[in-house]
């Protein structure tokens, strides 16, 4: 692990979105077995967004990075999506794909896999268009700020989603608690939080850069979510047992919670 915790400014300076996508989100047919981590997370998102009540007008994706895989199941249940991330280059990379620009990452194999989970692999082009249409804004945010999108204030959404962000953005457990409270303000009372978090991880690497990660256990995440004013309605950890020199990740937690009425 890095000697110091790599916080937001390190992401801004050193996170290369294209290298990240290539390293963690490639899914060619020949290589399918090699991307267990991604496939496991896609199945977990599929399962969570199939749960009762996970629908509404608006969804906010917090710490979206340059990726869209996390929106593929979600987009079927919400009319509008707003994506938020700290770093400029990640928001630009995402926008490049949304505008279908030359050189944007090829998500087709991933989109096809999710369509297969939903029962019809042939719907991939339709789903891809759905994501492109539904993402209405891509904005800067900082989960460590009381108003994560400040100075902009967004109307609270029906659902917030966050995948693999908070554990990278928070240097310790109190900061993680605080970040959950901060992003909790982005969702309406009675609305949902969908969280995908790695467990037992202290670092992940790509492109000769190492990023630190807050080492979390399942119950620590659940306690933090509840302390932020949510009721946990679904929580499922899956072990990550593949030998992988890029990370010391031990598992992934998929969690759904409902913001308590205020
Ligand atoms: N959600 C994507 C990206 C995860 S990488 C995925 O599932 O693959 C972690 C992301 O967290 C990066 O895009 C980084 O820019 C973002 N991030 C780091 N610190 C942050 C902060 N303080 N506020 C908001 N986003 C932050």
UniProtKB/TrEMBL annotation:
Gene Ontology biological process terms, A to Z: methylation
Q: Which GO terms describe its cellular component?
A: cytosol
The record's section on InterPro entries has: NNMT_TEMT_trans, SAM-dep_methyltransferase, SAM-dependent_MTases_sf
- By its UniProt entry, which Gene3D superfamilies does this protein fall under? Vaccinia Virus protein VP39 (3.40.50.150)
Q: What does the entry list as the binding residues for S-adenosyl-L-methionine?
A: 20, 25, 69, 85, 90, 142-143
Q: Which GO terms describe its molecular function?
A: N-methyltransferase activity; S-adenosylmethionine-dependent methyltransferase activity
Name one matching Pfam family: NNMT_PNMT_TEMT
**Keyword set, alphabetical order:** Methyltransferase, S-adenosyl-L-methionine, Transferase
Q: Which family does it belong to?
A: Belongs to the class I-like SAM-binding methyltransferase superfamily. NNMT/PNMT/TEMT family.
Instruction: Please give the name of this protein.
Output: NNMT methyltransferase
Species for this entry = Tachuris rubrigastra
């Amino acid at each position: 692990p890095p000697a110091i915790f790599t916080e937001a400014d390190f992401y801004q300076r050193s996170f290369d979105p294209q290298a990240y996508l290539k390293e963690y989100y490639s899914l060619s047919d020949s290589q399918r077995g090699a991307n267990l981590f991604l496939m496991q997370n896609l199945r977990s998102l599929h399962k969570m967004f199939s749960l009762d009540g996970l629908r509404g007008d608006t969804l906010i994706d917090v710490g979206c990075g340059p990726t869209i895989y996390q929106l593929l199941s979600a987009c079927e249940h919400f009319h509008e999506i707003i994506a938020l991330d700290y770093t400029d280059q990640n928001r630009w990379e995402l926008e490049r794909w949304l505008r279908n620009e030359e050189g944007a990452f090829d998500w087709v194999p991933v989109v096809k896999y999710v369509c297969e989970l939903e029962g019809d692999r042939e719907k991939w082009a339709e789903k891809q268009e759905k994501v492109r249409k539904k993402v209405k804004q891509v904005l800067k945010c900082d989960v460590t700020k009381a108003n994560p999108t400040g100075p902009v204030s967004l109307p609270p959404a029906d659902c917030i989603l966050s995948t693999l962000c908070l554990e990278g953005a928070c240097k310790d457990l109190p900061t993680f608690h605080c970040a959950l409270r901060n992003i909790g303000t982005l969702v309406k009372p009675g609305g949902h939080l969908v969280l995908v978090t790695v467990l037992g991880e202290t670092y992940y690497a790509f492109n000769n850069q190492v990023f630190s990660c807050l080492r979390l256990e399942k119950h620590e995440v659940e306690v933090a979510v509840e302390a932020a004013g949510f009721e946990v309605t679904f929580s499922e950890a899956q072990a990550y047992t593949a030998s992988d020199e890029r990370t010391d990740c031990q598992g992934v937690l998929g969690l759904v919670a409902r913001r308590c009425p205020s």
